[in-house]
Automatic annotation (TrEMBL):
SUPFAM superfamilies linked to this entry: Carboxypeptidase regulatory domain-like, Multidrug efflux transporter AcrB transmembrane domain
Family as reported in the entry's similarity comment: Belongs to the resistance-nodulation-cell division (RND) (TC 2.A.6) family. MmpL subfamily.
Name of protein: MMPL family transporter
Localisation: Cell membrane
Transmembrane segments: 174-193, 224-245, 272-292, 298-325, 366-385, 507-526, 538-558, 570-588, 622-639, 645-667
Pfam family, one: CarboxypepD_reg
Domain Membrane transport protein MMPL: 39-364, 459-681
UniProt-annotated stretches for the region Disordered: 697-717
InterPro entries given in the database record: CarboxyPept-like_regulatory, MMPL_dom, Mycobact_MmpL
């Protein structure tokens, strides 16, 4: 497929451009039909909501609030009324506004605070918040605030009002892409190579978003799906292309033709991308087991975007590589390739030194990593799930100011009233019992409508206060049953509490499902029980530490002002499920890219220490670059202006950073060094029964090498290897030693350069006797015969200054 796409590059590019433009045109013509369907079946708040719909079916539009306060005097003063009444009347006349209920009418006495300094009016729109035109909301805000001044403060709150505070759409995405571009340019040193991952991400996210928009017309897809699709699509699209382009550039620098380099890149890194994309989709699909139906549309949108990003990486990317040819390298690399010829690919610098350091001190590395992750996970013990509201907005926003004015004038519980909904007429004993309940500030029974009575209950504490949660429990478990009433407790605060409870109850099943599926996939890919078990433990550790960071910032308020958000509060109840889905998928990506290289080395050498060292040295740089890109993309969503989106962005950025920089490049290799060859253990009975899923193309069916034996005449060539270390007579590693393997007739078979730790490996085409020559300045040279049978041969070499071996 890669070769076909490379050779028919113009056709492939035109097909992708046509698909993007076609889906974009269709989606633009059809419009969006996102539906924020939120249902919690078999909960008390859902039963209350159903009765409320029966009692007040006409209340369809969004209701927002205009709040004003005077510094001196009363809001009933003629000087205040003469300014606010015309403003409210002007709002009432606007097309799209259904009703304005102010404090100056016969029924408005309750809308003035006890001290007379604060009042509010309720503006009911004809549509729900998402459907109200932004221009209308801006007119309402402008008209109301024009009345302010001379000691009169006017603020507005509500869902529709929030829309005028949001930054321009696309700001977060643009900043994330620009940050990713900087990282890519530093990694590649080439403008054209930098653009490739970004182009792939744009096509993947674009087609995914347009496709999701069209799907919203045939099934329920929440607006949250578009945000998360962009978030995950940008990250995986750039990362997957980064892995493939890195492998392609490496092939060209080794002297491969660009077409062969592209084919090899797709047949190695491309396979890993397919596998990694599959694990992300499986992790996202794990949300379905929670039975929270509003998440179904999120799964559809995000999974579609991931699938299209993978498809773009394995089809569009080789076509673009064909268009660029050698220009995928930087000018400096092209000049060096022309002047000095192909270079032997070997990890150097910090990556090689780090890999060697982890091998030398695996125990201390593991202990430090575990202590750090455990310390970061400590705040998780105080995790409290809930719902964010406008009290968490930044202090300078009008919604936050309106929230604070209402809390100051009418009590902190006014922003989250409860409704005790009675099926029938509420008895006086029930109303009295609710009034006498500790924590209740105010009770207002509403006359029965359609056989349903609603008792409005204002708590003494704010909606996010734990005491409000306890009040809901007392009303449900004690007050209502003792009064003998058929009643349910509803309202936004009660719904929030029920959602947090349902999410917490179903979280263990969800975590068990995605860990189990990830374990099975890694078991099939790497033919090992220990590798997937290690990955599962690491994923749980990453999740615990990232949620600890989230609690410290958003629940405890550490550094919250630096992010530009307002007051601390509980962690959004929907976040654990969505965040864990993305985290487990992305963590599995890094595990696949890291361990697949280790597994490839293990299959060829049967040397666990070398496999772990080489795998880490060759993949750590690209994994860290990919993680840094993810962190930039996720943190950019702090600029979205949405508190919940910012919380998700910070949480995912912390999770990816900890996973890549601490777990995958430190703890995982350290633990694998400590475990040794048991990393690759699989019971023989299980080995025979498991289907084989090859992440690397050169694996055989079992991953096992044949037993050593003397070669017979006429045997087919069997690949093997000679490997070991080049050291001085004092035992110090020799970096950069030239190691050459020759046949007995003097023909060169393979040539490599030793790594920073002195390790080397040369390929052997078939069993037999060969000549191994090693040279390094200022040391001498050493050569000798090596006999390779059926398996890899370990052969260490010591060099001394001025010493030369003569071999006839």
């Amino acid at each position: 497929m890669a070769r076909w796409c490379y050779r028919h590059r113009l056709v492939v590019v035109l097909l992708w451009v046509g698909a993007l433009l076609g889906l974009g045109t269709a989606a633009s013509g059809a419009g969006t039909n996102y539906v924020n369907v939120f249902s919690l079946p078999d909960t008390d708040s859902k039963r209350a909501y159903d009765l409320m719909e029966k009692a007040f079916p006409e209340r369809a539009g969004d209701t927002d609030t205009v709040v004003w306060k005077v510094e001196d005097g009363s809001v009933r003063d003629a000087s205040v009324r003469s300014r606010m009444e015309p403003a409210l009347a002007a709002i009432r006349r606007m097309e799209g506004v259904g009703e304005v209920a102010g404090p100056y009418g016969p029924q408005g006495a309750a809308q003035v605070s006890r001290d007379g300094r604060t009042a509010y009016a309720q503006v009911t729109f004809a549509e729900q918040a998402d459907a109200v035109p932004k221009e209308l909301v801006e007119d309402v805000v402008g008209t109301a605030q024009d009345a302010a001044g001379d000691g009169l403060q006017v603020e507005l709150g509500g869902q529709a009002i929030t829309r005028v505070q949001e930054p321009p759409t696309g700001t977060a995405e643009l900043v994330g892409v620009l940050a990713a571009a900087v990282v890519l340019f530093v990694a590649f040193g080439s403008l054209l190579a930098m653009l490739l991952p970004i182009v792939i991400a744009v096509f993947g996210v674009g087609t995914g978003l347009f496709g999701t928009q069209l799907i919203s017309h045939v099934t329920n897809v929440p607006e949250l799906a578009s945000l998360l699709s962009t978030l995950i699509g940008l990250g995986v699209g750039i990362d997957y292309a980064l892995f493939i382009v890195t492998r392609h550039r490496r092939g060209i620098l080794r002297g491969d033709d660009p077409e062969e380099a592209a084919v090899t890149a797709l047949n190695t890194s491309g396979r890993a991308v397919l596998f990694a994309g599959g694990t992300v989709c499986i992790a996202l699909a794990g949300m379905l087991v929670t039975n929270l139906r509003f998440l179904d549309g999120v799964v559809i949108g995000t999974s579609l975007t991931v699938v299209l990003s993978v498809l773009a990486a394995v089809t569009l990317l080789p076509a673009l590589l064909g268009l660029l040819g050698h220009r995928v390298l930087s000018r400096r690399q092209r000049r060096a390739l022309a002047a000095r010829g192909p270079e032997k690919d070997r990890p150097t610098g910090l990556a090689a030194r780090w890999a060697a350091g982890v091998e030398r001190r695996p125990r201390s590395t593991a202990v430090l990593a575990v202590v750090l992750m455990a310390a970061l996970a400590v705040p998780l013990l105080s995790l409290r799930l809930g719902t964010v509201d406008q009290g968490n907005d930044e202090a300078s926003t009008t919604t936050r100011k309106a929230y604070d004015l209402l809390a100051e004038g009418f009590g902190p519980g006014f922003n989250g009233p409860l409704q005790v909904v009675v099926d029938g007429e509420a008895s006086d004993s029930l109303v009295t019992a609710v009034e006498r309940t500790e924590g209740v500030a105010q009770v207002a029974p509403i006359p029965p409508a359609n056989g349903v009575t609603v008792i409005q209950v204002v708590p003494k504490t704010s909606p996010q206060d734990e005491r409000t949660d306890r009040l809901i429990d007392v009303l449900r478990e004690d007050v209502i049953p003792e009064a003998g009433a058929r009643a349910h407790v509803g309202g936004v605060t009660a719904v929030s509490k029920d959602f947090a409870s349902v999410t917490g109850d179903r979280l263990p099943l969800f975590i068990g499902t995605i860990i189990g599926l990830g374990f099975l996939l890694l078991l099939l890919a790497f033919r090992s029980l220990v590798v997937p078990l290690t990955a599962a433990v690491m994923n749980l550790l990453a999740a615990a530490a990232s949620f600890g960071v989230l609690v410290a910032i958003f629940q405890w308020g550490w550094g919250l002002d630096l992010l530009g958000f307002g007051r601390e509060g509980p962690i959004a109840a929907f976040l654990p499920i969505i965040m864990l889905s993305l985290l487990f998928g992305l963590s599995m990506d890094y595990q696949v890219f890291l361990v697949s290289r280790m597994h490839e080395e293990w299959v060829h050498t049967r040397d666990n220490a070398r496999a772990v060292r080489v795998g880490l040295a060759e993949t750590s740089r690209v994994i860290n670059s990919a993680a840094l890109i993810m962190v930039c993309v996720f943190l950019a969503f702090v600029l979205s202006g949405d508190y919940a989106a910012g919380m998700a962005g910070v949480g995912l950025a912390a999770a990816v950073a900890l996973d890549a920089f601490i777990l995958r490049t430190a703890l995982v290799p350290a633990v694998m060094h400590l475990i040794g060859k048991a990393n690759w253990w699989l019971p023989a009975g299980l080995e025979k029964r498991l289907p084989h899923l090859a992440v690397e193309p050169k694996e055989d069916g079992t991953g096992a090498l044949p037993a050593p034996r003397a070669p017979d005449e006429g045997d087919a060539p069997a690949a093997s290897a000679v490997h070991g270390f080049v050291r001085t007579v004092d035992g110090d590693p020799v970096d950069g030693a030239a190691v050459t393997l020759l046949t007995s007739g003097g023909r060169q078979v393979d040539r490599v350069v030793s790594l920073a730790d002195g390790s080397y490996i040369v390929s052997v085409p078939s069993p037999g006797t060969y000549l191994l020559s090693v040279r390094a300045a200022p040391y001498g040279s050493r050569a000798g015969q090596v006999t390779v049978l059926g398996g890899p041969l370990v052969h260490d070499v010591k060099l001394a200054p001025g010493e030369v071996d003569a071999v006839s």
